[in-house]
Amino acid sequence: MVIGLQAFGGICVSLVMKYADNILKGFATTISIILSSLCSHFIFDDFSSSLNFLIGASLVVFSTLMYSF
Questions:
Q1: If you write DSSP's letter for every residue of 1-59 in order, what string do you get?
Q2: d(CA 15, CA 46)
Q3: Where does the pLDDT of residue 69 fall: very low under 50, low under 70, confident under 90, or very high at 90 and above?
Q4: 21-40, pLDDT tens digit by residue?
Q5: Reported pTM
Q6: CA distance 21 to 12
């Protein structure tokens, strides 16, 4: 399931790169991180987000938002 999610994320990134520019690739990567972590949380019972993971994901999202402004 995780491999399928990552493959789907890669296809989404390639479509963004084909029809948009490099800046949107960062947004697609951020959305991929968020969606894969949310899906992992709901699909797999033993997945638990650690504090380091939450801090890292928050920093990635924050840096993408700061880069866009």
A1: -HHHHHHHHHHHHHHHHHHS-HHHHHHHHHHHHHHHHHHHHHH-TT----HHHHHHHHH
A2: 32
A3: low
A4: 767 777 777 787 788 878 87
A5: 0.51
A6: 13
> Which pLDDT belongs to residue 68?
67
Residues near 62 by beta carbon (within 8 Å), at least 6 away in sequence: none
Listed residue (16, 4, 12, 10) closest to 40, CA to CA: 4
Token reading at 22: 């490099």
Long-range contact set of residues 54-58: C-beta below 8 Å, sequence gap at least 24: 57/33
